[in-house]
Each structure stands twice: as C-alpha cells, then as structure tokens.
Write a structure and sequence with these properties.
208 residues, mainly alpha, 90% helix
Length: 208
C-alpha cells in the first residue's frame, strides 16, 4: 500500500512539473507575441506620426509665406514693420524647429535628406527676406513692390523638397504595412498554432 502511495505521489509530482513547464512555455509564447505586436504597433504609430508631421510642416510653411504677405499689407510705419517682422522671425524659427524634430525621429535617408536641404534653403531665403525688409526700412512702405520682388518665387523649391520627403514617408509607411502583413500571416500565425497545441495538451493531459 505504501509503495502504491509513493508511486501515485511520484506520478503526481511529475505531472505537476510537466504542467508547470507547459505553463511557462505558454507564457513565453504569449510574451513573444506581445513583443512582436508591440514593436509593429510602434512602427505603425511612428509612420503615421511622420505623415501627420510632414503635412503639418507643409501647412506651416505656407503660413510662413503668408506671414510675409501680412507684413507687406499690415505695416504702415516703422513701428508696425518691426512688430510684423518679429512675428515673421518667430514663424521662421518655428518652422525650422519643426523640421529638426522630424529629422530627429527618422533614420531613413530618403526622408531626411530633403529636409536637410529644406533647412539650408530656408535659412538662405530668410537672408533674402531680411534684405527685403531692410529695403522697406530704408525707403519706407512705398517700396512694397520692390521688396516683394526680391523674394518672389524663392519658396517654391522648398515646397519641392517637402514633397520629396512626403513621398518617401508614404513609401516607408507602405513598407511598414507590408512588413506587418507578413508578420501577421507568418510568424504570429505560427505562434498561435503552437499556443493552440499547448492548450489542447493542457486540456487532454491525464488528471493523475
């Protein structure tokens, strides 16, 4: 009787260890799936945020050009010219900071190269705007047309650089979507099959 009791006890200990091992294996695969989906979710969010950021940058750049038009329309004397120029300077810096923020979170050269070019051209254009403003200071607001002629059309090449970056971002987002689809139909699908087999094993394991 004692031997039989020991055998039952030993068998029970073994099954407990087996169940424990299966449970650990089960939790390990849950972690792998969570890790894979978490990484993919992060990539998708980053791609989506980038698209929103470049769109916002395009809008802000248009607003920056409009700030110059506002300066020409609203400046009636030296005081109002100085006030409107300060607003134009602030918009210029805000756009520059926004571009740097986008660059910092991107490692894809097809995205960042046009943005670096944008920054360089944007800074050079600012010097031309400054020269136009100095013309107004020297000659008064009656020199509006001459001042505007100095900067006429200089922002169009910047728009082209933003468009290049936006296209690269869209291509990168499409690549991320393709990778997500591949993982979902491949690796994660295999993990789910393994989890299903483990679940069946736990259900049908003898209850000793």
């Amino acid at each position: 009787m004692e031997i039989q009791h020991n055998e039952v006890k030993g068998a029970s200990s073994k099954i407990v260890l087996v169940k424990l091992g299966v449970s650990v294996f089960f939790l390990f695969f849950i972690y792998i799936i969570w890790s894979a989906t978490s990484h993919l979710t992060h990539q998708l969010k980053l791609a989506s945020d980038n698209s929103l950021a470049i769109h916002h940058l395009e809008v802000e750049h248009k607003n920056g050009v409009q700030e110059w038009k506002n300066l020409l329309l609203r400046s009636e004397n030296q005081a109002s010219l100085n006030k409107n120029w300060q607003e134009f300077e602030l918009k210029h810096q805000a756009i520059r900071d926004l571009v740097k923020d986008i660059i910092e979170v991107n490692e894809v050269q097809r995205i960042t190269d046009p943005l670096w070019i944008f920054i360089s051209m944007h800074d050079k254009n600012f010097e031309k705007y400054k020269a136009a403003k100095e013309l107004l200071v020297a000659n008064g607001m009656q020199a509006r047309l001459q001042a505007d002629a100095i900067v006429f059309g200089i922002d169009r090449p910047l728009v082209e650089q933003l468009e290049k970056s936006a296209v690269a971002m869209q291509e990168e987002q499409n690549n991320v979507n393709d990778r997500v689809a591949g993982v979902m139909s491949g690796q994660i699908g295999q993990y789910l099959i393994v989890l299903a087999l483990i679940s069946l094993l736990l259900i049908w394991m003898p209850k000793w």
